[in-house]
Amino acid sequence: MLVIYGMTQNLSQISKAYDPKQVEQKTYRLWEKSGFFDPDRLPKSYTLNPKPYTIVIPPPNITGSLHMGHALNATTQDILIRWHRMRGFKTLWLPGTDHAGIATQNVVEKELKKEGKNRHDLGRKKFEERVWKWRGKYGDIILDQLKKLGASCDWSRTRFTMDPDYVHAVLFAFKHYFDKGWIYRGERVINWCPRCSTSLSDLELEYKEEKGKLWYIKYPLKDKKNASVTVATTRPETMLGDAAVAVNPKDTRYKSQVGETLILPIKDREIPIVADKLVEAEFGTGAVKVTPNHDIADFEISERHNLPRYQVIGEDGRMTKMAGKICEGLTTLECRQKVVDELEKLKLLEKIEDYTHRVSKCYRCENTVEPLISKQWFLKMDELAKMAIRAVKKNEVKFHPKRWEKVYFDWLANTRDWCVSRQLWWGHQLPIWYCENKKGEDNYFLSLEKPKTCLKCKTCKPKQDEDVLDTWFSSALWPFATLGWPQKTKDLKTFYPTQVLSTDRGIINLWVGRMVFSSYEFLNIRPFKDVYIHATVLTREGKRMSKSLGTGIDPLELIEKYGSDATRFGLIWQAMGGQDIRFAEEHFLAGKKFCNKMWNASRFVLTNKPPQIKRGYQRRLTQNLTKEDKKFLKQLDEIIATTNKDLEQFRFGQALHRLYNFFWHTYCDSYIEYTKKQNSKETDKLLLYGLITSLKLLHPFIPFITEEIYKTLPLKNKKLLLIEEWPK
RNA sequence: GGGGGGUUAGCUCAGCGGCUAGAGCGCCUGUUUUACACACAGGAGGUCACAAGUUCGAAUCUUGUACUCCCCACCA
């Protein structure tokens, strides 16, 4: 019989092997019940030194379920959070989810498709209701999964980007930019996904190499019989919308021909030859067809040369009336064949070459993106981008590892104005209203509420713009909108700015940059001090993990198999600061073994007449100790120091390796073995003290088992390890 | 086209100017030594991608080469 934690327990009751299933759920409930995830409910000692420490979680999509990236990122953040909480900071980890406009809309549309319906059958309102219903059912699944991992988020502060308060913040921000004159409506060639019927930003594209052809087409000169200029194109169907042929101004082959007129085949339209620096003389024949409405580069050329515009492809991805009778209504691919056939008949097809090129795809549905001219809303980026650059240049925001700032700078320095409108139904609808009576460009106004009367004509019932905002427009406000902005809330005052943003390298520009400038614009302060870019988890073969390819690994299966602590261990064990980690299951096994080792070492210490020591017991070098004791104390001091240092520098893997080594070899192999031959009260105390310290140091990494063992320690006035004092 | 990683034991990775190059997993031999066989004791296994250079000394620094992965970009 032995006395553990104030109650009598049989030795046989303590299992020889550690079983995470017996511990993890139970322990998580204990933490939740304690309320200590909520910084306002932390014990008094935490309010004496009210230094806040805040991390906002990168809000996962409501379509998501936990994948390896989330698991690694959540563990990383939880380590930082638990470490700081134990160090006495007023610690907040704020969770939440993102409505993820296009992604979620697609999921619900797929569901509808199974019922043989589409969103237009329902209508906008019913469709939105349907998405809300979907969200209610599946929207928080991933947050529940994070709990399985041990994430110590303050769930009472969970936010969603479509919460009423959050919607208000988004519209408030839009109005701010609008009033400043930074929001404008314009016609541009944008990336259009015909399947999703929406515009996409450049960052929302994915590229795929595709084998195609390069067609060489002769465009006859108007005034010279039998003479022509040959252009090369991968998309012959777009020639129906050509407005010119362009050559490089320095290209001697064409110099004399600039200004002459060509006859566009099939359409028999007269088009000029223009000189533009964008054209590369080396490509194809050095002469390029210019299709202003269906190519971003061509649009720019057309602006410089004042060319007319012909819209030959519609938003449905089919050829328009303007394409001509023989092509109208055809898909672009059907039309391509038609055009090629016609050209052959006219003997204007010089040659066809095989050609592999990059095709833009929608990042959500993988359909080929169609560049189209369209009226969209833009946010001026020049000032904002400058702010974002300055913040990092002045070290107010730091990237870890540092090299990622280059990705950030490169994008910001070259970015165009941000197309913030999306033709979706799920999202924050633009607070723009159109007058029914007024014509022309000055026919709209902004109103956050539904206007009672039209601000333009005072008589009509204005119609709201149907577009919604880019989902990233709302996530750009995440760090402060979640804390109550634009209201001057207590939370905002207490917890803002946040300390660390931990995220994936894939969204440095999509998200991080935009949060930085938003924060400076609205609060004149950085949103976070450190941006930690965590490793990307790849397959064992070094390929991207992908659900659709079936190469993904489900972290929940790992938790099931090895336990949550071992899963965290396995991820962090490999997170050495490099960019990629290949999935290797043996590291999770190592985690499981390590937990077992801790379990048994603790069993040994606690079943061998453990000494009674006080909770705040601090052993320091004194003359009463043996040589071995002193050595161990020194090693203990060292591991405390290196753990702190590693964590300060985001060296999570290194910290864990050192702790592993310390616990297994220094503590178990060396010190425990030594104490077996030793009969000294001081040594026994030190042995227990060493265990306590190890539990504390390891708690941020493997919180469940350390908490469970701590529970059984013979300490007076014990608290949860969750809020115990970090070793000094 | 531009940029950034990587190449070290069978596998996944540390080490990034200086003791016989390390860990986990795997493998081999032994041990049921009363915390742990998810363990312990011991062991095999590496021209640190290649080449040249700097240095008293290089896996570590420089340059080049090869292979590989990832970003970005308006080569139609």
Keywords for this structure?
728 residues, alpha/beta, Isoleucyl-tRNA Synthetase, Domain 1, Isoleucyl-tRNA Synthetase, domain 2, four-stranded mixed β-sheet, 23 helices, 27 strands, 18% strand, elongated, disordered N terminus, RNA-binding
Architecture blueprint of SSEs:
Blueprint: E1 2-4, E2 7-9, H1 20-34, H2 45-48, E3 52-56, H3 68-86, E4 90-94, E5 96-97, H4 101-114, H5 119-122, H6 124-138, H7 141-148, E6 159-160, H8 164-180, E7 183-193, E8 198-200, E9 205-220, E10 228-233, E11 244-247, E12 261-264, E13 269-275, E14 287-290, H9 296-305, H10 332-345, E15 349-362, E16 370-379, H11 382-393, E17 398-400, H12 404-414, E18 418-419, E19 421-422, E20 432-434, E21 444-446, E22 463-464, E23 468-469, H13 471-475, H14 478-481, H15 490-495, E24 500-503, H16 508-523, E25 530-533, E26 536-538, H17 555-562, H18 564-574, E27 580-582, H19 586-607, H20 627-648, H21 652-676, H22 681-698, H23 703-711
Parallel strand pairs: 3-4, 5-6, 11-13, 17-25, 24-25, 26-27
Antiparallel strand pairs: 1-2, 7-8, 7-16, 9-10, 9-15, 11-14, 12-13, 16-18, 19-23, 20-21, 20-22
Helix pairs in contact: 1-23, 11-12, 11-16, 17-18, 18-19, 18-21, 19-21, 20-21, 20-22, 21-22, 22-23
The structure holds one RNA strand of 76 nucleotides.
